[in-house]
Amino acid sequence: MSLNIMRKESLDRYLGEDKLFVKSMNARDLMAIGIGTVIGTGIFILPGTIAAKSAGPGVSLSFLFSAIVCALAAMCYAEFASALPVAGSAYSYGNVVFGEFLGWLLGWALVLEYMLAVASVSTGWAAYFNTLLEAVGIHLPKAISGPFDPAHGTYINIVAVVIVLLITVMLDRGMQSSIRINNIAVFLKIAIILIFIIVGFFFIKPSNYHPFLPYHMKGVIHGATIGFFAYLGFDCVSSSAAEVKNPKRNMPLGIIGTLAVATILYTGVAVVLTGMVKYTKLDVANPVAFALQMVHQDWLAELLSIGALIGMFTMMVSMIYSSSRLIYAIGRDGLLPSFLGKLDKKTHSPQIALWIVAVIIAAMGGLVSLDQLTSLVNIGTLFAFMLVSFGIIPLRKRKDIGNRGGFKVPLYPVLPIISGLACLAMMTQLQKETYIGAAIWFGIGIIIYFTYGYWHSKLAKNNN
After folding, report:
1. CA-to-CA distance for 84 and 93, rounded, in angstroms?
2. Fewer CB near the terminus (10 Å): N or C of the chain?
3. For residue 398, with 0-12 CB atoms within 10 Å meaning exposed, 13-18 middle and 19 or more buried, which class applies?
C-alpha cells in the first residue's frame, strides 16, 4: 500500500465545515487583532537596540526596509485569505494547494509559533505586573513567582498562569465581547505610543541625527534583518477568516492595514527616539524609558510600563484566539483528535480547542523557562511565510477556486517568488541552535503525522 501524502483538501468541504462560525468581524476588528499581535513591548526596545548596535539614526530606514519585505508576504496572505476564507490560516492554505503533508508541517510550525510566543509573553507580562505590585508594597512569595526550579526556590509562575486563563475565560464568552475589549486595549496602546511620539518630538536635537548612517548602508540592512522580526504576527489575522463579514474585502484590508499601521508606529518611535538621545547611548534594557528619563519626563516613562502591559495583553488575546482556530482546523481535518474540531452549539466557537490550548500555554508559561526557546518562533513563522508566498503560484492554477473581486498580488509571479526567497534569506540569519530545536520539533510532528494523522484524516476516509 503506497502512501498518498500529497492528497489535497477541498475548499467546498472547508466552507461547509466552517459555516457554523458567526461572521461578526469587520476590517477594523481585524486590524485590532493584527496590531494587537505585532505591536508589543518590542516597540519600546528594538528601535533603540538596533540604532545603538547596527544602524544609528538610520534605524528608521531599517524598519522601512523590513516593512517592504514583510509587505510582500502580507500581500500573499491577503490573496489566500480572500480566495480561501476558512479557519486555520496557512495550515488550511497548505492543505488545499500543496497537499496534506506540507499542510500538516505548516500547521505544526504555526502551533510552535503561536503557543510558544504566548507562553513567553505571559512570563514577560508577569514580570511587569510583579514590578508594579512591588511599587505599591505587595510582594508575592518567591515559590509562586518563577518557573519550576526547586533549586532556586521557585515552583510556578502563578501570575503567568492566571493571565492566560483570564484571557481564555474572556474569549470563551464569545468573540463579540472579546473583540470590544481587545479594540479598546489596542486603542489605549496606540494612544500611549502616540503620546510618546508627540511629547518626544519637542525634545529632538537635530545634532543627534549626525552622522545619520554611522555604520553605512550595511548597518541599515543588518538592522532591517533584526527589525523584520518585529512585524511577525500579522498572519494571525488570517486565522479569523471564517468569522469575517465580506472576507474578500475585509481580509486584505485587515492584513495590509495592520502592517501599514505597525510601520508608521515603529518608524515614528525610531525617528523620535534617536532624535531625543544620541544613538550611542541607547544600548540599554529599555531605551524609550531611558530617553524619557534623560529629558526628565518620568511620568511618561511610568505610563509606558502600562502601555507595555496592555501591549502584551493584546498580543496574548490575539495569539490564544488564533491558536484555538488553528487547533480546531487540524482537528476538523482529523489530523488531531476530531473532538478538537467541534464548535460549541451555543457560542459557535471551538471551546474545546480553546481550553486545551489555554491549559498547554498556561503550563508552559507557569512551569518552563522559555529563554532559550523563543527564537524558534521566528523559524516557524518564516517557514509559513515562505510556503504561503510560493503557494500563490499553485493557487492561481486552481480553476476550482474562484477569487473574482478579491485581492490578488500584483506583478504575479515575480512578487510571490521574491517574497518566498526573501523569507528564505531571513531564515539563513537564524542561529544554529534554532535549527537544531526546529529539527526536533518537526521530527516530533512527522512522527505524529505518520502514526496518527495520516490514518485518521478526513481525506483518507473520503478517498476510501
Report:
1. 7
2. N
3. middle
3-state DSSP assignment of residue 87: coil
| Predicted TM-score of the model (pTM) | 0.91
Residue 291 is placed in which grid cell? 530617553
- Measure the CA–CA gap between 13 and 2, rounded to whole angstroms: 25
pLDDT higher than 60, residue 374: yes
| Closest residue by Cα to residue 164 from 357, 327, 304 | 357
Question: Taking a C-beta distance cutoff of 8 angstroms, is the pair 25, 322 a contact?
Answer: no
Q: Which helix (H) or strand (E) holds 156?
A: none
Rounded to an integer, what distance in angstroms lies between the CA atom of residue 110 and that of residue 381?
A: 7
Query: 3-class SS at 213?
Result: coil
Q: If residue 437 lies in a helix (H) or strand (E), which one and from where to where?
A: helix 432-448
- Cell match 486563563: residue? 165
If DSSP codes are grouped into helix, strand and coil, which group holds residue 25? strand
- Residue 404: its H or E element: none
In whole angstroms, give the CA distance from residue 189 to residue 139: 27
Question: What is the C-alpha to C-alpha distance for residues 207 and 132, in angstroms, rounded to an integer?
Answer: 36
What cell does 457 get? 484524516
- Closest to 57 measured CA to CA, from 201, 190, 220, 191: 220
- Closest C-alpha to 351, from 318, 319, 324: 324
Question: CB 200: neighbour CB atoms within 10 A?
Answer: 23
Tens of pLDDT, residue by residue over 114-154, are 999 899 999 989 988 888 888 788 889 999 988 998 998 99
Residues in the chain: 464
